[in-house]
Amino acid sequence: MINVSKIKKGIVIDHIAAGHGYEMFKQLHLDEIEDVVLLLRNVPSHKKGKKDVIKIETDLDLDFTILGLVDPHITVNYIENGEKVKKEKLTLPKKVTGILQCKNPRCITQFEKVDEITFYLANEEKREYRCEYCDSRTKLVEK
Ligand code: CTP
Ligand code: ZN
Fold first, then answer.
1. Per-residue pLDDT for 40 more than 60?
2. Which of 1, 53, 74, 136 gets the most CB atoms within 10 Å of its CB?
3. Which ligand neighbours the alpha carbon of 112 most closely?
4. Ligand 1 center to residue 32 CA distance, Å?
């Protein structure tokens, strides 16, 4: 296998389901930052067989709440002086704007163009969000 170097300082997004790293890279707009970014695909993993990993060498405090929507199984590691100093499991964001679509066929957002619909977390265990317009619930799809 290629030598995947450890980083000195920054953030490692680990255990991304194989094939979903690129989508996540785009959602986080990592093409827009000036720091060194590595997107690793199909890395061998004990737990999953294969996984994707993103490594960002940065001083920035990036917001990853959105990642819980994409895949609740990923872990975010914070690295300082070449050592992992913190590991975060993701939880679902309480409020999500501009990402989810309402699935209720009678919702006004199906007829009128609404750019940024806000959804509120209704049931964390069931991964359900409530539409701000019609109150109906939308379940996140598991990856
Ligand atoms: N990592 C890195 N640079 C470092 C330290 C760690 O890029 N200086 C990466 C590792 O390659 C790994 C992730 O950060 O992808 C987590 O590191 P570590 O905690 O050492 O690995 P595991 O123990 O396997 O983590 P887990 O228990 O989450 O599987
Ligand atoms: Zn709705």
1. yes
2. 74
3. 2
4. 25
